[in-house]
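ok here's the first one, seq then struct tokens
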Amino acid sequence: MTMELFAHPFSSYCQRVLIALYESGTPFQLKLLYNEAPESFAELTRPWPLKNFPVLVDEGNAATELSVINEHRALKHPGPIEPIPSEACA
């Protein structure tokens, strides 16, 4: 199952998550949150009723907040780069 990232295109927090996902080569589906896509906001309320973003949904579990999302990605889907040192996650 591919991860889904709910993100707004102008949010700097969302951009930081996108950078980490692209740099690590992690496969994901981007669900953009903007006025022309109300269905994305409707999908976002299922895993995270507060409607804050970014939200990463991986295997039905929602990770919220920038640092939590990036740590989840580093632990569950490590890539060729290590943006979070391994001793910091221990």
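and now the second one, same deal
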Amino acid sequence: MGRVWRTIRGYILWEYPRGSVHYDVMVTLILAFVFLAPRWINFNDKPVERNPHPTVVVVLPDEEGGFVYQVEASAVTATDEKAIEEALRRVIEPIAGEVVILRREPVHDRKGQLTAYKVWVRR
């Protein structure tokens, strides 16, 4: 029995020289654990699901080398000018970082319905 414990102690303390049978057994056990353990052990390391922003934002280049953000009108529920600008900023800033809105234009469809806002910004 003492010999078994000495062998186990040698495995735990990694006392066997490279190229020996015991060394090969230790390496085989480690590789078996690395490749087979994920099948039987639940490590709960699933990737986090990232939900895309629910608002469609189209980024277009402008003539001056900047960008124009086209934001769906459904993302803006405000009616007064200041609240509309704040709502647009809340949609754009997660995408572009902190911005200053230079100007904005409403985009209408053929029937005259508001469909989006074009927003020129500066970082």
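notes on #2: DSSP finds three helices and four strands in the chain. Residues 2-40 form one domain.
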